[in-house]
Amino acid sequence: MQRKAAGDLKKLVTDALVEAGLTYEGAREYWTPRRLTLDIRGLNARSADVREERKGPRTDANEKAIEGFLRAAGLSSIGEAHVHSDAKKGDFYVAHIVKPGRDAEDIIAEVMPAIIRDFPWPKSMRSGAASARPGSLRWVRPLQSIVCTFGSETEETRVIPFQVDGIVAANVTHGHRFHAPEAITVRRFADYSDKLEKAKVVLDAERRKEIIAADARNIAFANGLELVEDEGLLEEVAGLVEWPRVLMGSFEQSYLEIPSEIIRLTIKTNQKCFVTRQPGSETLSNRFILISNIEAKDGGREIVHGNGKVVRARLSDAAHFWKRDQGDLPDLETLEPSAEKFGLDLKKPLDQRMAKLDALNVTFHAKLGTQGERVGRIRSIALALAEVTGADQALVDRAAVLAKADLRTEAVGEFPELQGIMGHKYAVLQGESAAVANAIEDHYKPQGPSDRVPTDPVAVAVALADKLDTLVGFWAIDEKPTGSKDPYALRRAALGVIRLILEGRARLPLLPFFDIALRALMAQRPEVAGDIAADLLAFFHDRLKVYLRDLGARYDLIDAVLTSEADDLLMIARRVEALTAFVTAEEGRNLLAGTKRATQILAAEEKKGTEVADMVDEKLFRLDAERTLHASIKLASDDAREAIGKEDFRSAMEALSRLREPVDVFFNDVLVNDEDQAIRANRLALLGLIRTATGEVADFSKISG
Amino acid sequence: MTTASLPDHMNPKRSFQALILTLHNYWADKGCAVLQPYDMEVGAGTFHPATTLRALGPKPWRAAYVQPSRRPTDGRYGENPNRLQHYYQYQVLLKPNPSNLQELYLGSLEAIGLDPLLHDIRFVEDDWESPTLGAWGLGWECWCDGMEVSQFTYFQQVCGIECSPVSGELTYGLERLAMYVQGVDNVYDLNFNGREGAEKITYGDVFLQAEQEYSRHNFEYANTAMLHQHFIDAEKECVALLAAGAPGDAGNNRLHKCVLPAYDQCIKASHVFNLLDARGVISVTERQSYILRVRTLAKACGEAFLLTDAGGANWNREAA
């Protein structure tokens, strides 16, 4: 938050100064937990005079017009105006107005209060006695003081006179809250930052980060350990301290039995401390690294002791969750109807959590029903998918039924980002097969363009089912992503489906599965919209284009093979691949040029209304080039069609590329626009055959170049 | 006053009750009315009418008190060294907040013997919100060596009503603070009365059995059907009392005559909801609706409070 605020301060102040006619050489912002600072260098002492001419009435205009002109231009008598002559308009008055420049100090004093009052904090507050009055200052926390000085490099600086809600700008600040709370008088930035450094405040957050990162690595190394780096945490702790001091604490080895993800999150989220590990290994150590804000009198012994206590208490809590999640829930008899619905075994802890999730009617989305209903849908979609992919039906069913069970565990309640991961662990502990346990974790994957894509057929079926249910569901209630708004991460879900299919090389036409997912939803919610397949498929096409583009494919080539009803993503991708290879080779480029020429001529004649024969009549051929081309097209089309039947797009392209020579020869030797109308119509029909033949693999007219 | 000159049993570093007494002395010295705990089950010191209701309206107010607080889901059967389903909050409300609120707070830490050059005392920005009370504010968590020992809030809104002026609320977690100053790792080992040997009474002597029993109650035994009914009764009664005390149209009749008893029912509903939540019988959607129902009561109480003397209904006239 402070980083952004400091950036906002820089932009707002420099924009306002420039707007007022000043220039500056450079500006840099700084922040600490208690301060926002802006250092502006090379600001002019004064803005330049601005001259402008204001045209007035003709010299013979009436008195009223002249008076009005004097008033508007700020002149006291007409003698101050100049007379300009114009051949057409005659003589008229012009006021030469000089707006004198202003001192930078005045400008700063004028712009600052408004910037402070309207500062774009994400959340701001009122405080103190002033808050009883309407329109009192809002700031992120109570604003304590303002330092604002101005002056050249060499001379004394002056305090800029302004105030906001009773806080008067001055040249006095205070150092570290505990080490140096005394008042410090400052002149200019260099002086300010030096004095703060002496008063145990490192003003520059980047330097605080460097200090923390270097010291943390060193202290870990000195103890034979390795720091588990965490850039987000580093940024956060650098924003919490003004005088960072790195210390190391520890907890009992026995806590290392808790899964390391939980240990790391507990220590990071709740305590803002770093964890360490044995060098080169994934195993965490029982040492953690903390950043204090003081140079303690005892070298930090008390601080380490205190932090250790808190970390131990937190881990004890985590251990408690970990243990309770493996035990029985109370009132098991109330869960029997849910258990029956999902074929759950109430002797097993994770099964109990799933039954509880269902029994509590935990909402997934108001219009899409409960989590229990959602699991029911995922289950039926996953089973249908398994039929096509050949995944083991029983394992898919079990994985689908347990996929969301960990949402009811205490560990996930505490750390929602552990969903799936905890389900996996608890599934292993209750003896589920590896495929089921992995699928519980992996069904959320892939979460983005760089996340791992599951490959096990059980995980793939549940992962696809989860995402298809989400997409079809939100489409059916018309909650689609718009512009930058995608609250349900539907783009990510579609990308997930695309990656699962393409990277898993799966033959899965989408439309039948949209239908299965929609029917599962309508069985529960008959009121949702049923007519969504075409629109959702178009959304998939858009996401597929983005995905293939990121892999380096050309947009025009994707468009050339994509038809609005194409729902077999793997086939689309393979066609694009083959087409790309084809058009980058010389044969392909030439055929493309020839085809385009044929298409253009044909289109132009069609537009003019020239007759084109329905069928090519061999008897009307006059030249060899016509005959050769016709025979070649027939051969190439047959070969291409056969290759496409075998989904061998490369061979299809190769077959077509054999057309290149006859097409070239045709255009070289044959004049399409023959005087004989029948011959011309026949030749145009032949051109039409080129278009049809190439259309077997792609719409060449959409390919650029 | 230095802690060294005190007899051991009155030293805040040795005795839980002396910690409370030291804070009482400190805040009494700063002009607070030192109140006693509210005599109802509440989730936090904020629910005490001396905070919730007194934060509303224009009249200045300064109060400090200990409030026993119940968080049924935090029960750990006495097995966790510092999580409790019943614990003490020390609550200070200063209205309007003085500009040196942080310094006053740090003064109180020094009074109980916490040296800020020995302990890492940190203000961590925190947005505070109580959906059930329709309240929010900005402030800090105050950390001492990584443990959150206090919370600062500048109330912006309470009972859905804009605070004018803003109050500063300080809440100390007394057990955690005491564990710090006594140097104890387990809350049950805290010395309660500051005596040693046979005369010593520990926090565990006072509360361990209660934590075990209440954890069983909160998670396993509490009768959920009865609790559901209690919630409904409290809600009805709150609305009925507010209607009964509502001001008439004219003259002396313009003040509200029954806000505090109605607010008690709002507190009761809130606690019953917390118990139902601990029993795991509230679904996510129901949860939202329960919170909304309590907030509706809190808002109605807050609006009614503004029509009372303490709520400042007569205050402008007094000032004039």
Automatic annotation (TrEMBL), chain B:
It is found in: Cytoplasm. It comes from the Bacteria. The keyword Aminoacyl-tRNA synthetase applies. It catalyses: tRNA(Gly) + glycine + ATP = glycyl-tRNA(Gly) + AMP + diphosphate. Keywords: Aminoacyl-tRNA synthetase, ATP-binding, Cytoplasm, Ligase, Nucleotide-binding, Protein biosynthesis. It holds the Pfam family tRNA-synt_2e. Its EC number is 6.1.1.14. GO terms for molecular function: ATP binding; glycine-tRNA ligase activity. GO terms for biological process: glycyl-tRNA aminoacylation. GO terms for cellular component: cytosol. Tetramer of two alpha and two beta subunits. Belongs to the class-II aminoacyl-tRNA synthetase family. This is Glycine--tRNA ligase alpha subunit. The gene is glyQ.
